[in-house]
Write a structure and sequence with these properties.
Blueprint lengths: L1 H15 L17 H10 L2 E4 L4 H18 L13 E4 L14 H4 L4 E6 L6 E5 L3 H16 L8 E4 L5 E5 L29 H13 L3 E3 L12 H14 L5 E5 L4 H4 L11 H17 L5 E4 L16 H12 L5 E5 L13 H6 L10 E6 L23 E6 L15 H9 L11 H5 L10 E5 L15 H12 L5 H12 L4 H22 L30 H5 L5 E2 L16 H8 L9 H4 L2 E2 L10 H24 L7 H33 L14 H5 L10
Parallel strand pairs: 1-2, 2-4, 6-7, 6-13, 7-8, 8-9, 9-10, 10-11, 11-12, 12-13
Antiparallel strand pairs: 3-4, 3-5, 14-15
Helix pairs in contact: 3-5, 9-10, 14-15, 15-16, 16-20, 20-21
This protein binds 4-O-methyl-alpha-D-glucopyranuronic acid (GCV).
Length: about 700
């Protein structure tokens, strides 16, 4: 009987411990390190939280739950501050001896966490001007404990550097997700507004934990139905839930909505009736959701309607919507992702269309540009729009969902990609005019500033599909709060909160994460190759692709391989796309001897025999990079396997299996690309490399019929 009980209880405990990843980085498991645990237990005896708003109640509950889990001990709530209290208070500490806190500096969302000095011992004071600032402070404080930082001498002030910190969902009303690899949409429009899924609350809480303060609920390939009354009631239900977490709701506006749901005959932005229709629509929306954030718009791009259908400009379109939401303090995020088939170089288009419009947008418009000039490729130079529109706030759009980065199966930590772009120097106002300074509004003195991440969230139990994809969601929150954070620090925090604080394990996982994006670039598109994936689903290599009617959708358009060499000549002798950058950048990219290897084929058509910075010929370098990429994945597998005892069984197995797919895919990319490019270079893959075991024909015949997220 005893044995049976024991077995049942072991089974039960292991069931309880099943690691499905649902808790993301807010796990609050008991601290394993006994010394740290004892320290925290000694330092924290009670909490005092003043205030009764919904947000403050959330903060109180989070602190109670978090501490209970982490310290494995119930920390009581007290009425008065004593020794070893955590004191959470929106206002100055009043009767207690308050540390000197510059409240003005904290603004509407910042917070301070300070160890109070004076009569009472070891009081930690979490404060802000606003309730949401308090909540952010509580999450920050819990993170300190989750990541096992000392908490005995705190003097922290944290203020977000960007105003808009947004997720962009590409979720359709039928719950499919464009480029989604984590199941269906988390928004169940059918059961809203009456049924509130616990996930909505967990979603809000998770976002708030990193400072994300807005969400665009719907796909930029928009459906006007979302703007009809019944759907607005559903949106309201979400907005009401998200509000106490500091999250505003935004929607995508389909430009032709006045025709589709308004029964007008036109959507011309300069037509009075159309303008009036949008004004009425905005009024209706704000009567239902008073703090509605505004609209995100994709117009005249990939078949979406827009102002150019009426021979008007993007500014005309954006301004019409801006005027409609302005009385309610709404904003418009107008996307710069535009290209049409006639252009000689897709690279140049966004700049060509938007640069001349600088200064013509209303004050409440931001132009939202993707990080690079083409489309979320594994590596792109920064978009030349950054630095080129000083009179317009530019919002950064990164893609969390890994459309071109191995989708749901490859382990890729994107912070290094994002940081590469943020740190890039546009030279717009001389040296040091980084992309960060453009988007945080500092370079050109803009009030509005923002960063968006195309969401990688779905209804999979672990939210993001690949366990490591969660890190990219986390990164968006942390980087949009502070673009100055390093990839390393963000990884470190995420690993400690998501997996463990064990030093060796953290070091191994961090190493994998920090090298993962470069590995992917190497096995997919090294040396500045780009856009050579299958069309449609975008999974796997298809450098030979040349059958679509639009040349700028065909891989051959991008690599231009021939017997002389490979790469797209965008120098002054080619399409002169380099001219869109400031002189310093231009000079670098234009000169084959100065252009960094990693961007070489973005800007030059390079001979197969060209001597690279490594001393190898281009062809040999290409082989070297592709083989290095595959080797990196092999090394990730080894590193991961070494952690078997340190990671819970569920997530260990999941990642292990996914890495096996990643390796297969990496080999597929390497072999397919090299065999294909070899038909032009006519050069051998160096004999000391393992040779492809399949023919080019084999790779050309691979078909993926039912790819997700398409
Ligand atoms: C939402 C790429 C994707 C499209 C996406 C588009 C965009 O082209 O493949 O699925 O559409 O970018 O960003 O608008």
């Amino acid at each position: 009987m005893k044995a049976l009980l024991l077995i049942t209880s072991i089974l039960f405990t292991s069931l309880l411990k099943a690691e499905d990843g649902y808790r993301l980085w807010l796990r609050y498991d008991k601290i394993k390190n006994p010394v740290m645990l004892a320290q925290y237990r000694n330092l924290i005896n009670s909490i005092v939280v003043t205030g009764t708003s919904q947000t403050i109640n959330i903060a109180r509950q989070e602190l109670l739950n978090g501490l209970k889990g982490l310290l494995n001990k119930k920390i009581p709530e007290a009425n008065a501050v004593k020794n070893n209290s955590i004191f959470v208070n929106k206002k100055p500490a009043g009767q207690y001896e308050s540390p000197a806190i510059n409240y003005e500096q904290l603004g509407n969302e910042g917070f301070a966490i300070s160890s109070m000095k004076g009569r009472l011992k070891d009081v930690i004071f979490i404060t802000a001007n606003t309730d949401i600032g308090v909540l952010y402070g509580v999450f920050y404080f819990l993170r300190l404990i989750q990541t096992q930082q000392p908490i005995n001498n705190l003097n922290i002030v944290s203020v977000p550097k960007l105003k808009l910190r947004l997720l962009n969902h590409w979720d359709n009303l039928n719950r499919t997700v464009e480029r989604g690899y984590a199941g269906f949409s988390i928004w169940n429009w059918h059961t809203l507004p009456d049924y509130i899924d616990q996930r909505y609350i967990d979603y809000a809480r998770t976002n708030a934990s990193t400072g994300i303060n807005g969400t665009v609920l719907t796909n930029v390939n928009a459906n006007a139905t979302i703007l009809t009354k019944p759907y607005l009631e559903k949106v309201k239900a979400l907005a009401d839930l998200f509000r106490p977490y500091g999250i505003k709701v935004y929607l995508t506006a389909r430009f032709s909505a006045p025709i589709e749901i308004g029964k007008l005959r036109s959507a011309d932005p300069l037509n009075d009736t159309v303008q009036q229709w949008w004004k009425e629509k905005a009024k209706e929306i704000y009567s239902i959701i008073p703090d509605f954030g505004g609209f995100l718009v994709k117009a005249n791009s990939e078949g979406q309607p827009g102002p150019q259908d009426y021979k008007r400009t993007h500014a005309d379109g954006a301004n019409m919507l801006a005027d409609a939401v302005a009385p309610f303090n709404g904003i418009i995020m107008w996307r710069a992702f535009v290209y049409n088939p006639e252009s000689m170089d897709r690279f140049k288009q966004a700049y060509e269309e938007f640069h001349p419009l600088d200064g013509m947008f209303r004050k409440n418009v931001l132009v939202q540009a993707k990080n690079g000039p083409i489309d979320f490729q594994p590596r792109e130079p920064f978009s030349p729009l950054f630095g080129a529109m000083p009179q317009t706030p530019l919002m950064m759009e990164f893609q969390l969902t890994q459309e071109y980065l191995g989708q749901g199966t490859h382990l890729v930590y994107e912070a290094t990609l994002f940081k590469e772009v943020l740190n890039a120097d546009t030279y717009a106002k001389g040296k040091g005019s980084t992309v960060t300074k453009v988007i945080d509004g500092n370079l050109d003195n803009h009030e509005l500033s923002g960063m968006a991440g195309v969401s990688n969230i779905g209804n999979d139990i672990n939210w993001c599909g690949h366990p490591f994809a969660q890190a990219n969601w986390y990164t968006l929150g942390r980087l949009s709060w502070d673009p100055g954070l390093s990839s390393e620090q963000i990884a470190d925090e995420w690993i400690k909160q998501t997996f463990t604080n064990d030093k060796k394990t953290v070091a191994v996982i961090k190493n994998m994460m920090l090298n993962s994006r470069e590995a992917l670039v190497n096995y997919m598109t090294p040396i500045g190759l780009t856009h050579i994936m299958y069309n449609g689903h975008h999974y796997g290599p298809m450098p030979w692709g040349n059958t679509l009617n639009r040349p700028d959708w065909n891989p051959v358009y991008y690599h231009k391989a021939d017997s002389a060499g490979i790469g797209f000549d965008r120098t002054q002798k080619g399409t002169n796309a380099v001219a869109q950058y400031a002189a310093e950048v231009q000079n670098q990219f234009n000169d084959i001897n100065k252009c960094p290897d990693k961007y070489l084929l973005w800007f030059h058509h390079v001979s197969w025999e060209h001597k690279m910075q490594s001393g190898r010929t281009l062809w040999n370098e290409l082989c070297y990079k592709y083989y290095t990429g595959v080797d990196s994945v092999r090394s990730f597998i080894k590193q991961w396997n070494s952690l078997e005892k340190n990671i819970d069984e569920d997530r260990f197995k999941q990642v292990k299996q996914l890495l096996t797919i990643q390796l297969k895919d990496a080999i597929w990319w390497r072999n397919a690309c090299l065999l294909y490019f070899q038909t032009f270079s006519k050069m051998p893959i160096p004999p000391d490399y393992e040779q492809p075991d399949k023919t080019l024909e084999y790779y050309k015949n691979i078909k993926i019929l039912f790819a997700p997220g398409n």
